[in-house]
Amino acid sequence: MATPPTPKIALVTGGNRGIGYAACHQLADAGLHVILTSRDAANGDEAAHELRTSSRSISSYPLDVTQAASVDRLHEYVLGEYGRLDVLVNNAAVYLDEGVSVFDVGIDTLRQTMETNLYGPLYLCRAFVPDMRAQNYGRVVNVSSGAGALHDMGGYTAAYAISKTALNALTRIVAAEVRRYDIKVNSMCPGWVRTEMGGPGAPRTPDEGADTITWLAMLPSDGPSGGFFRDRKPIAW
Ligand code: NAP
């Protein structure tokens, strides 16, 4: 099947700040229409307003990734307004247990982390990937972290690390289920980035962190699927 009409339609979760905001900027600069989603509607509207120019096409819509009903409303809006989704960037996440031992992390913290970092992307994949299958085109980017890589799993920060390992598993599972289609599903790590999550001492800018997101969002039909990338290169799980 031919690639979808232009502009392609992209959706970014947690687009109001940090790496998600930079990804919205880059995807819009690349000529895609970007649906910037944000847990807080006013923050999302403000971010979209800041980014929008005559050459950048950006709309905003509220989304709390932990709420299935919120994902359902978004899905209905996207299909009603645009008729399809071509690119899904699962970026929104929380990092609630920095430096906390696995013996001390509260189960509520673990649950909240999984709800945001794993169930959120799962809800979004379940809403949009079947539509991508029907149009035989889609690019899904799961924003993961080196903290979720099993090969050098460190101690502490168990909730966040486990959620990102699980997100990587979701990447593999969804990629395998759609392997016969022109749908690419990949995980990536942005590196250590200066955002609210990364803190002021991080070496990378949000733009540098978002670069591999944008690259994966625009993969050609013979591009990789089911991989884990940093700086546009495969990294170990
Ligand atoms: P950030 O500055 O803390 O931004 C997180 C974003 O996620 C915000 O937009 C936040 O919205 C949103 N969010 C959190 N919970 C949400 C929910 N329930 N529903 C919808 N949105 C929600 O983080 P960041 O540094 O840009 O990180 C972006 C991604 O990169 C994350 O997946 C993170 O794990 C990954 N990452 C970051 C680093 C780093 O060094 N920064 C390193 C490795 C991986 P609000 O504004 O409403 O809170």
Write a structural description.
With 237 residues, this protein is of the alpha/beta class. It has a single domain, classed as Rossmann fold (3-Layer(aba) Sandwich). It is built from 6 helices and 8 strands; from the N terminus they run E-H-E-H-E-H-E-H-E-H-E-H-E-E. An 8-stranded mixed β-sheet has the order 3-2-1-4-5-6-7-8, with helices on both faces. Helix 3 runs parallel beside helix 4. Bound molecules: NADP nicotinamide-adenine-dinucleotide phosphate (NAP). NADP nicotinamide-adenine-dinucleotide phosphate binds next to helix 1.
Question: Which SSEs are present, and which pair or pack?
Answer:
Blueprint: E1 9-12, H1 18-29, E2 33-38, H2 41-51, E3 58-62, H3 68-82, E4 87-90, H4 107-135, E5 138-143, H5 158-177, E6 183-188, H6 206-217, E7 228-230, E8 233-234
Parallel strand pairs: 1-2, 1-4, 2-3, 4-5, 5-6, 6-7
Antiparallel strand pairs: 7-8
The structure holds NADP nicotinamide-adenine-dinucleotide phosphate (NAP).
Small molecules bound in the structure, each named once? NADP nicotinamide-adenine-dinucleotide phosphate
Amino-to-carboxy terminus distance: 32 Å
Lateral strand order in the biggest sheet: 3-2-1-4-5-6-7-8
**SSE succession:** EHEHEHEHEHEHEE
CATH superfamily: NAD(P)-binding Rossmann-like Domain
Largest sheet: 8 strands, mixed
Structural class: alpha/beta
> Which architecture does the CATH hierarchy give at level 2?
3-Layer(aba) Sandwich
CATH topology type: Rossmann fold
- How much strand content do the residues show? 15-25%
Uncertain residue ranges: none
Please report the number of helical segments: 6
How much helicity do the residues have? 40-55%
Q: Using only CA atoms, what is the Rg? A: 17 Å
CATH structural class = Alpha Beta
**Using DSSP, what is the number of strands?**
8
Shape: globular
Q: What is the number of independent domains?
A: 1
Average of the residue pLDDT scores: 97
